Amino acid sequence: MINSKCRPECFSYRDPAGGAIRVGDAFFRRITASGWEDWRRFNDSGLAKDLVADGWLLPFGDAEKQPSGEWLAPVETLDFVSYSYEWAFGQLRDAAVLTLELLLRALEYGMTLKDASSCNVQRHRGRMIFMDHGSFTLYREGEVWAGYRQFVSHFLGPLLLMARGDRRHQLQLRNFPDGLPLDYVAGALPQRCLLSLPALVHIYGHAWFQKRLQDTADLRQPEIRPLPKKRFQILLLSLRDFLAGLKSPSESGEWSDYYEHTSYSETSFLDKQRIVRELCREVAPHRVVDLGANTGVFSRIAAETAEVVIAADVDFPAVDRLYGQLQQGAGGERIYPLQQDLCCPSPGLGVLNRERLPFLERARGDLVLGLALIHHLAIGNNWPLPLVGALFAELAPVALVEFVPKADRQVKRLLRTRRDIFPEYGRDGVLAAFGRYYRRVKTFPIAGSERELFLFDGRIE
């Protein structure tokens, strides 16, 4: 019996049939009286068991009735939660495909999905997984999918804009928590998309229909022809195959090819890997935050020890490349790649600014890595060094930081088009700045290089 301090989560308030409840660090699926019949059918039909067995649905336990008349079912806890505006292109595409696969499977059991939010899907232990157990409801022959508009706004529209237009359109998902408006998508797509049948039907045609409804003074419900189940399935299969075939934008990022043009010698790079590996084993963190992860070379090293590695980088193509490598089996079950600009990290959004939590709150760990990063913050973005130290101290009690001197090629690259106004940037300045937040430091020179690694610990609370 759950009778302690339960509270509904701000991210889970929209569905009258239920939502999510947190009790301490545990999560429960809440089912109200109005949602019980769908929940019972979802379980008794075998659909729930089928989806969990296939790894498509987050595992959960039996529902227990509460004194309030509601039911609570324990749900496996996610290691890390991220949002669609932070994902790799492939991650958003895979989430879209999974949503359609789930719907197709649900139809086989006489059920459907009542919604199609990208928030229903997360990356969990190496794969995309559906976590909104309350989305399943009875299917009625001929009905139009209630989640169709949401699917187009959350998945199809953003993916088309990214693949056919500009990758940065994805960031607009921050501003539109209910998905990109169809008129925005239709207006932003290049004209050649008019020749694409999926875009023509699902974007342009859909946007035109919505505008027509908004412009008319007739308040009656529009007459919509029934859609037979067979035709519905064919439409879903066609849409799934189209999305599965979408390719990540091919343009090179500023840093996605960093390791092909680094100032390291092979000896130095191998020595850096050795030091990082040894220090990760010494610290033995459960959760690592890798800031400026690039394509994840050191995220993979951290994952040899840690259970969870959050691999964040500002460069979209670098994040795409890392996600693609992880999906090909390159040690990805512990690594969570995401796009993140540290100068403008994802803020708290939605109801009470708690519906979607800030990156700096979600990403706290036991060890934070900043390898070949702090010169980008201090010189590339004019951060005072104490502010750089504050960022690391905010995220973890132990920090492993790489110091790159001004004589290094990468720092010269940052300074080639601007005046050097950073007299405090140097070895002593970095040590002093981080010394405000950490009591101890160990230094490790990288062989064949002027670079050093600093391990700070004993965070000052």
Write the layout of secondary structure elements.
Elements (H helix, E strand, L loop, with lengths): L6 E2 L9 E6 L2 E6 L4 H9 L2 H7 L10 E2 L5 E5 L13 H20 L2 E3 L7 E4 L2 E4 L5 E3 L9 H17 L17 H7 L8 H19 L13 H16 L21 H18 L3 E5 L5 H7 L4 E6 L2 H12 L7 E5 L19 H4 L4 E4 L3 H7 L4 H11 L2 E6 L5 H7 L11 H8 L3 E8 L6 E8 L2
Parallel strand pairs: 10-11, 10-13, 11-12, 13-14
Antiparallel strand pairs: 1-2, 2-3, 3-5, 4-5, 6-9, 7-8, 14-16, 15-16
* SS-based class: alpha/beta
- Which residue ranges are poorly predicted, with pLDDT under 50 across at least 5 consecutive positions? 1-8
Q: Calculate Rg over CA atoms.
A: 24 Å
Tally the beta strands.
16
Question: Count the helices. How many?
Answer: 15
CATH uppermost class of the largest domain: Alpha Beta
Nearest-integer average pLDDT: 90
Strand order of the largest sheet: 12-11-10-13-14-16-15
Count up the domains.
Answer: 2
What is the rounded distance between the termini?
37 Å
Annotated CATH homologous superfamily of the largest domain: Vaccinia Virus protein VP39
In percent, how much strand structure appears in the residues? 15-25%
The helicity comes to 25-40%
How does the overall form come out from the CA principal axes?
A: globular
Major sheet size, sense and barrel closure: 7 strands, mixed
CATH architecture of the largest domain: 3-Layer(aba) Sandwich
